[in-house]
Design brief:
It is built from six helices and no strands. It is globular. The two termini are 30 Å apart. α1 (3-28) packs antiparallel against α6 and α3 packs antiparallel against α4 (115-141). It has helices at 3-28, 50-75, 80-101, 115-141, 150-170, 175-198.
C-alpha cells in the first residue's frame, strides 16, 4: 500500500471512530442534547460514558488523524505550505487525543476547574485554532495542482470552523451545534484533502531541470 493510500485509510478510521464515539456515546448518555452539550461532556470526569468515550474514542481517533497528517506531510515534503498545514492539522489531531487524556469536569463546568480541565481547554483551544489555520493553508497548498477546488473548499471550511470556534468561546446556548459545525468542517476538508492526496491531486512542486 502506498503512503497516500495508507494515509487516507488512517484518516477514515480516525474520523469513523470519532463519529461513532459521538453517536454511541450520545445515545448512552442520559438525556444528552447534541445541540446544547459539548462533545467533551461525553468523555468528562464522572460522566457515565467518560472512560469509554475518552479511551476508545477521543484518543485513538486523534492519534489516527495525527498519523494521517504526518504521512501527508512526508508525502508532500517538498511543498512547504502543505508541510506547514499538515503540522498545524497534526496538532489538531493531537488535541483530540489530549481531550481524552485530560477530560473536562462533569458537564464541562468551569466553576472549580481542575488541572485536567485546564489542560483540556488549553490543548483543545489551541488545537481548534491551528486546525482552522491549517484548513486554509492546506487548501491553498493545492491550488496549483490537479485539485485546485481544494482552495475554495479549504477557505470555506475554515470560515465555518471559525464561526463554530467563536460560538464555543462565547459559550452560547447552542454550543453543541457550533462545535459540531467546527468538527464537521474539519472532517469534510480533511477527507477531501486525503482523497485528493490519494488520487495524486495534491503534489510537490515540480523539480527544476
Amino acid at each position: 500500500m502506498t503512503a497516500p493510500r495508507l494515509a487516507f485509510v488512517l484518516l477514515l478510521l480516525g474520523e469513523g471512530i470519532q463519529l461513532a464515539a459521538i453517536v454511541i456515546g450520545g445515545a448512552l448518555y442520559p438525556a444528552y442534547d447534541h445541540l446544547r452539550q459539548y462533545i467533551s461532556e461525553l468523555g468528562a470526569t464522572g460522566a457515565v460514558t467518560g472512560p469509554a468515550v475518552s479511551w476508545l474514542g477521543f484518543v485513538p481517533s486523534g492519534l489516527l488523524i495525527t498519523a494521517f497528517c504526518g504521512l501527508a506531510g512526508w508525502v508532500l515534503r517538498r511543498n512547504l505550505l502543505a508541510v506547514v498545514a499538515c503540522l498545524l492539522l497534526g496538532w489538531y489531531g493531537l488535541s483530540l487525543a489530549g481531550a481524552g487524556l485530560y477530560p473536562c469536569a462533569f458537564e464541562c463546568a468551569r466553576s472549580e476547574p481542575t488541572l485536567d480541565a485546564l489542560m483540556h481547554d488549553l490543548i483543545g483551544g489551541t488545537g481548534y485554532l491551528t486546525g482552522v489555520v491549517g484548513l486554509a493553508l492546506a487548501g491553498l497548498s493545492a491550488r496549483s495542482g490537479a485539485a485546485p477546488w481544494l482552495a475554495p473548499l479549504g477557505l470555506g471550511c475554515a470560515a465555518v470552523a471559525l464561526v463554530g470556534f467563536g460560538g464555543i468561546v462565547a459559550d452560547v446556548e447552542l454550543g453543541g451545534l457550533f462545535q459540531r459545525l467546527l468538527e464537521g468542517a474539519m472532517a469534510v476538508f480533511l477527507i477531501a484533502f486525503g482523497w485528493a492526496l490519494r488520487r495524486g491531486g495534491v503534489s510537490n512542486p515540480a523539480r527544476p531541470r
